[in-house]
Design goal:
The protein is of the alpha+beta class and 181 residues long. Helix content is 50%, strand content 20%.
């Protein structure tokens, strides 16, 4: 089943559009198992996207490419600002995303049931790295501000994943706390 939506924003010439391909399972399951691919454009934000997933679990072409691709994500040929006014340029950019999806979407297209788990694990890993970077920055600031207890609180329990600099900060902060007791 294919579904196409377009609408014009109020008081301007911008058109938002999306095309969705939905594959319903042969067995009678809920909508949660519908497999889909959605190509969309939002010109005011200068975004063109290709999303895919199962039911309410949505992933982006960028996430899939990061998992399955071997190189940097291919850059656009055309500026989306200019492509909004040139149908051929816009069509080329849509087709480019579809070709990228064909290259890295083999697991999705062949119904590899482990793909969803792998994509979720990738998200979790990225989230963990981001969280550790934030903790590291907070610990650095606390260290510079001589807030030794904050440094210890932030870094304790993460010793195995700390950089050598943060390991030294933690050790130093613990010594400073001991000195004041």
């Amino acid at each position: 089943m294919a579904d196409l939506h377009t609408y014009e924003a109020d008081n301007n010439m911008a058109v938002f559009a999306s095309a969705t391909y939905i594959e319903k399972p042969k067995k009678l399951f809920s909508k949660k198992s519908n497999k889909f691919i959605r190509l969309s454009i939002a010109p005011l934000r200068l975004e063109i996207d290709l999303d895919f997933g199962w039911g309410e679990n949505t992933f982006t072409i960028y996430e899939l490419y990061k998992l399955e691709g071997n190189f940097k994500f291919p850059e656009r040929k055309y500026s989306l600002y200019e492509a909004m006014y040139d149908e051929k340029q816009l069509q080329f950019e849509f087709e480019r995303l579809i070709e990228i999806f064909k290259l890295c979407g083999k697991r999705f297209l062949s119904n590899d049931m482990l793909l969803k788990r792998d994509l979720e694990q990738q998200r979790q890993n990225i989230s963990s790295v981001t969280k550790n970077e934030m903790i590291s920055k907070k610990a650095e600031k606390a260290f510079k501000d001589h807030l030794w207890e904050d440094v210890v609180t932030l870094l304790t329990g993460k010793e195995n994943s700390l950089s050598s600099l943060n390991q030294m900060r933690l050790k130093y902060a613990k010594k400073k706390i001991q000195k004041f007791k």
